Known about the structure:
The protein is an alpha/beta fold and 565 residues long. It folds into 2 domains: 6-264, Rossmann fold (3-Layer(aba) Sandwich), CATH 3.40.50.10260; 290-561, 3-Layer(aba) Sandwich (UDP-N-acetylmuramoyl-L-alanine:D-glutamate ligase), CATH 3.40.1190.20. Helices cover 43% and strands 14% of the residues. The protein has helices at 6-18, 23-44, 62-75, 93-100, 115-123, 128-133, 137-140, 147-168, 187-193, 242-246, 308-319, 331-340, 361-373, 387-399, 409-416, 434-441, 445-449, 452-463, 497-510, 515-537, 544-549, 551-561; strands at residues 53-58, 80-85, 107-110, 171-175, 200-204, 226-230, 248-252, 269-272, 296-300, 324-330, 345-349, 376-379, 404-406, 428-430, 466-469, 475-477, 481-484. Strands 8-17-16-15-14-13-12-9-10-11 form a 10-stranded mixed β-sheet, sandwiched between helices. Strands 3-2-1-4-5-6-7 form a 7-stranded parallel β-sheet, with helices on both faces.
Amino acid sequence: MQIVTTKQMTKVEKQAKKLGVPPKELMQNAGRKIAERVIQICSAENQIPERTSIVFLAGSGNNGGDCFVAANILVYRGYHVTVVNLVKEPSTDLAKEYFDSLPDKVNIVTGYRSENIEAAIEAAELDYSALYDRDITSLKNKKEPTAIEKILIKEKERMTSVRRAVVSADVLIDGVFGTGFKGKLDSDLMAIFSIGTSAYKISVDIPSGGDGSKGTVSPGCFKADETICLGCLKFGMTQYPLKKLCGKISVADIGIPARAYDCLDGEHGYHRIDRDCLAGFPPKREQDSHKGIFGTVLVISGSSSMRGAAAFAALGALRSGAGLVKVASVSRCIDTVSVLAPEATYTELDSDSNGFMAFTESNRIKLLDEMKRATAVVIGSGMGVTKDTTEILRFVVENSFCPIIIDADGINCIASDIEILVNRKSEVILTPHPGEMGRLLNCDAQSINENRIMVAEKYAEKHGVTVVLKGAGTIVSDKFNTAANHTGNAGMSRGGSGDVLSGIIGSAVAQGFSPYDAACAGVYMHGLAGDAAAEKIGQEAMLPRDIIDCLSDAFRILKAKQGKV
């Protein structure tokens, strides 16, 4: 599914105007879609329009205009409709036009402070919480209240009217801010969004307080049961924490011509990974197929103290269709992995006194020989970060002619010496989690999570690699495209899950897919298998081995979606 950044959406809407679909028509269509959805919800709950309260929290821009159009439709369907203007009076020409056309039946509530009141409150050094919590009953009874006391009374009345509207709502629609929101919500809006209500809550385009580009949210962001995304899904809505606050997401067709998206040709492309992105995956297995057709994955992984990592990577590759899987590791690791994955073959490497791979002449010869036969190399999981393992990684990168998937300790080795990537002979896929990405960029994981999309894109572009930035809403990026995954669940947040993923991606590469396509297929199938495991076992009890065991279920689900079974 194609998705866009907020800047690209603005560009598409401008192109739609050039193609004969003006903003006014788009707003009319958006308002109609919102109204239709509200009617569907109320009908499903058998709510009688005359007894149903619909409340719009409207902003001053075109998001508010969409709400005004919907309010007009709903009031003539018999619903009790209230519009609460929360920022200021409508400010765009279209928003003004549709606000002014609202019939008298629509209850209008002014929910924002006037500039004079703002100035007076600031001068008096009063904040919202002080105003709201203060008991002013006695002030109303005063014959000659002071100027500040008059402000307190007016503020209390304003907030009371807003609260009554919100509490009375059966359906509450958030149309305060659109996709252009940046920064933080003010204290007024945070308080309003936190008012307790049993209403079904809908956000228009994006929950107010959410950043449609990054996926971050302001404290107090509106929490929706459902978000109606207008025209096209915005990339930030694929990322957490914003995705969590969107509730159910639907995309409403508001009449933007398909040709309008042609204006994005040549720009960095954005997608949500789904079955349409996996066309041709998995490759068809003809009756006369043999193992050589499906590639050879070389897994250089593990150590004496971290044997499971190599097993998970090997099994991930085996279970996702690779014809041959060879594990190169130290003897104690091989002893364990060979029991768990007897289908693989093994190359024993020399170890140092601590059980990690040693950078010896014998090991170099063995690795060179195995790399000649491989169609994909997976390296890093559980191999440790030592001077020798760093040199082994450098050696592999400089001598492999097939794509290399670098995970875990391999990434940590690069963090200590980025020059490792400079002299590569083949394409590279990096699969960091936020902590590992932070080590690559010398920053903390929180900084990575606040800028996930930009970080993945910029690193991929700068170093000419494919980046798989793991986490909820895993991002895959190269210099041309960025994709977000939506499969998977919290039960996968266990050590070893990433090792399985590296093996799956290695298998897809070995079977002939480009690094970017293989990474997209890998994260999708990994998450789909995780969802199948959670369904069978539960998120609390599932383990990485269950993801491996459920890959067969994932392939069946995928083929059913693709119409192949």
